[in-house]
Amino acid sequence: MIGFLAFAFAVIGLIHLYLWKRLVRDTTRPGRWRRAGSVAAAVLAVLVPTTLIGTRAGHWWLAWPGYLWLAVMFYLIVVLVALEIPMLVAKLWLRHRRRAAAAAVPHAPEPALVGAAGPAVETPAGEVPLDHSPDRRLLLARGVAIFAGLTAAGISGYGIRTALGPPQLDRVAIPIARLPRTMDGLRIALVSDIHLGPMRGLSHTERIVNMINNMDADIVAVVGDMVDGTVEELGSAAAPLQRLRSRYGAYFVTGNHEYFTEYQEWVDEVARLGLRPLRNERLEIEGLDLAGVNDIAGREFDDGPDFAKTFDGRDPNRPTVLLAHQPVQAVDAAKYGVDLQLSGHTHGGQMVPWSVLVRLEQPIVSGLGTVDGTKVYVTNGAGFWGPPVRVGAPPQVTLVELNSQ
């Protein structure tokens, strides 16, 4: 843990050093504005780890300023890095023009290169090279900084509105080869990653419960990451879950965030609210097996997934729907002939282009796919973690309809 924290803090420091270089040093001359910008960059650099540590310690007031800056910081990095290539191309082109102009004058010496803060160098013709004019460099740097700042703020604003808005209702029909005709059209209300915590509370839960109850589903599946805090802190925010309605009941499996707090307290609380925790177990619902496994993070607490126990004695002729928080768990589920796995965890990437990195860890980021012959549906989740921002991955509650073939 110490090594991980040291690495994380080093990365945060380097990111803010880069932002300081591009947004402060390159855009100001030495003086009070540069000093003020340097102080601001240092404060923001400290704010990020302070927020990550402080919110875990119960100082939830840090969440809004810290996580909002994290979102803006992310998109500043994305925009500025994307601009590095065209800026480099422009500098090379200007340098080529300067050398071509110098070569046109017989026996003209090659002008020396100078740093950003150095004096302008004159060409043989007595002109200041375009790529070495301090005023031109300052103007270019300020233009890039303004563009990056406005773009990052605009994207973050759009993402905040999306994240804090109501989840969209998606409907997906999934054919299951072994599903009995009598269960054709079985409807499962799927929700994941509600993430009750510093920035989402009672009203968030009430909105989700109302959406699910309006679906008139046969089964409700809550597939992990319901909370970011203890029962004492968030029990009242989770209370509306006791109003969930469905024909065959509501079921719950743990996500990795349940293990960040007192997971057993939440398992007990969920059961008290009327949801049945499926903890490496399977039950029969008419002609269907509904199973649930613990999240991978539970292994650190001797409470990880146990597929052998879950599917021990299973009738291979019965179709199986598995609730598992992480899509990657389908690799193990496929070994037991699971027909369909319902998952969350990825948030659909939450903030484009972060979804590219999520794909390195999970076989499916959002929607329906297949892993080793097992169908896997991944919902974007109804909440968010960290920055209250969603870009390219709106919050989602899904109505899954199973069809016989």
In short, what is this structure?
It comes from Phytohabitans kaempferiae. InterPro entries: Calcineurin-like_PHP, Metallo-depent_PP-like, Metallophosphoesterase_sf. The protein has 405 residues and is of the alpha/beta class.
Describe the structure.
This protein is of the alpha/beta class and 405 residues long. The protein folds into two domains: 2-110 and 124-162, no CATH class; 168-404, Metallo-dependent phosphatases (Purple Acid Phosphatase, chain A, domain 2), CATH 3.60.21. Helices cover 41% and strands 16% of the residues. The chain is built from ten helices and twelve strands. The protein has helices at 2-25, 32-56, 63-103, 134-164, 202-215, 231-238, 263-272, 307-310, 330-333, 354-358, and strands at residues 168-176, 186-191, 219-223, 250-253, 276-277, 281-285, 288-292, 320-323, 340-343, 367-371, 374-378, 396-404. The strands form two sheets. It has a six-stranded mixed sheet, with helices on one face. The protein has a six-stranded mixed sheet with strand order 6-7-8-9-11-10. α2 crosses α3 and α3 (63-103) runs antiparallel to α4. The chain starts with a helix and ends with a strand. Residues 113-128 have low confidence and may be disordered. InterPro entries: Calcineurin-like_PHP, Metallo-depent_PP-like, Metallophosphoesterase_sf. This is Metallophosphoesterase. Pfam families: Metallophos (PF00149). The chain crosses the membrane at residues 6-24, 36-55, 67-89, 139-160. Residues 186-348 form the Calcineurin-like phosphoesterase domain.
